[in-house]
């Protein structure tokens, strides 16, 4: 019998993500096919994805924004 199951490896054992219909202590053979980890995203990618709004010249008055000073109008 061949059955494909999904499992998570916790560093010590494989934990199935769904019930398995086998009696306890049944010997099985595992074939491991690891999923590729998600691609790392840069800070700029994340910042652009957030689509935050703010004044275009915020960096010109950074001290005022950070320290509560008056921002010129």
From TrEMBL:
Domain of life per record: Bacteria
Lineage, broadest ranks: Bacteria, Bacillati, Chloroflexota, Chloroflexia, Chloroflexales
Name under which the protein is recorded: Antitoxin family protein
InterPro entries for this protein: AF2212-like, AF2212-like_dom_sf
């Amino acid at each position: 019998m061949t059955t494909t199951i999904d499992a998570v490896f916790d560093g010590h054992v494989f934990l199935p993500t769904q019930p398995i219909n086998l009696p306890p202590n049944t010997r099985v053979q595992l074939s491991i096919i690891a999923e590729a980890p998600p691609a790392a995203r840069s800070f700029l990618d994340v910042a652009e994805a957030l689509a935050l709004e703010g004044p275009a010249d915020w960096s010109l008055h950074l001290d005022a924004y950070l320290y509560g000073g008056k921002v010129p109008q």
